[in-house]
Amino acid sequence: MRRKGILVGALSLSLALTGIGINTTSANAATTTITIWHNLGDTQNATAVKALTDAYTKSHPGVAFKLVSQPADNYFALLQAAAVSKKGPDLLLMWTGLFALQYKSYLQNLKGVVSAPALAKEGSLSWSSPDFNLSNGPYVMPFDRQFYIGFYNKAVLKKAGVATVPTTWNELYAACGKLKTAGYTPIVYGNGGQSLGALYYPWYDASYIAIGQGGVSGLKSLYNGTNQWNSAANIASYTKYAALKTKGCTNSDILTKTNNVDDFIGGKAAMIIDGTWDTKKFTDAMGTNVAAFVPPFSDKPIKGVVEFAGQGLAMTNYSKNQKAATAFLEFMTTSDAAKIVDTAGLISNVNGSTTSNAVNQQMLDFATKGGFTRFPMLDNVLQGDVVDAGNKILPSILGGKTSVAGGLKQMAQVWSNLAADKRGNSYK
């Protein structure tokens, strides 16, 4: 899950390297201070991390935490710069998949560091292990299970005469017509929620477009080039995607809007493509009027869902507090930690844990009761250069600033410029 300001980045690095942050416990009463960097802003995930550290210090008064919030758009550049001087954090927010693996040079492999019983309590650890093979050991301890998912307003759909939630492109187009006529924005886009840059984050949508094309093979084929970005299949899919704006399914200002979440909560928009980090925000404001749905970006109903341990905490291999940091990572695998994550409105990644949020449970039911296949987040299993390019190109396609063929040709060129060993069948 990727989440770009040179001046801001330089200031943040300066603050981080001088130790300015938020202490969750008085350092005067602590013998060890664990510094954690993250790029979560004020999301529920940030709330969860703060609650986890607060709970830990209550039972471990000899430990304090310094939480340093970094800007989302150049977070990884700050981490790399700090790693050179070895003045970065002890623990850091890290996404799973190739995000973790491409930065593993300064991360500590957790195999043999965190106890085997503790690691066994966590799901999806393979996604931060080299070549996605758990036997190679994970680099990230996930704290929540995330979904890329759609949310819809039940009352708005009903008022507009949309009897069922759309499951295909054509059903979606038809619903958009009714919603627009009724005075609603059918799907609202913008960089709200997890603000990962100036533009909306396109990989929620792109994940379902790939799943709709070919499931698991649709994801892997974009990595190894079996399905080139400018293939006939992708041009056809993204032409239908670009039609969302031309057919009036979206707000006109998708490339500049920053309050799309507010529009959805306020009843101005019928649907939003987002993730579990905003579920609690929606249910707190909308109660039972909000529900989840699989984005219908396919000619046929998609029987898959993006369910993934998308992020967690990793430990730097240069940390001088590895023993204390390891103990906290082990705490993250406990039932007490799972309850804290649930209270924050998220789905714990601890195996066997439950969720008290009905909409989060609805998401889990897609796979456990509905027979949907679970898929990873597309941006977590694609090469970093491709994802960075897609962050700009794909929104421009939907926004009508770049042609489908031209934009996808640019994506294909970025892929072709990758080193040969990053275009094969092994994830690197």
Can you describe this structure in just a few lines?
This protein is an alpha/beta fold. It has 16 helices and eleven strands. Strands 1, 2, 3, 4, 5, 6, 7, 8, 9, 10 and 11 form an eleven-stranded mixed β-sheet that branches.
Notes on the structure:
- With 428 residues, the chain is α/β, with parallel strands linked by helices.
- It has helices at residues 6-17, 44-59, 75-85, 98-102, 116-120, 154-159, 169-181, 203-224, 232-246, 260-265, 279-286, 322-331, 335-343, 358-368, 384-398, 404-416, and strands spanning 22-23, 32-38, 63-69, 91-95, 141-153, 185-187, 269-275, 290-293, 304-315, 347-348, 373-375.
- Strands 1, 2, 3, 4, 5, 6, 7, 8, 9, 10 and 11 form an eleven-stranded mixed sheet that branches.
- Strand 2, helix 2 and strand 3 form a beta-alpha-beta unit.
- The longest helix has 22 residues, at 203-224.
- The relative contact order is 0.17.
List descriptors.
globular; 41% helix; alpha/beta; 428 residues; D-Maltodextrin-Binding Protein, domain 2; 2 domains; eleven-stranded mixed β-sheet
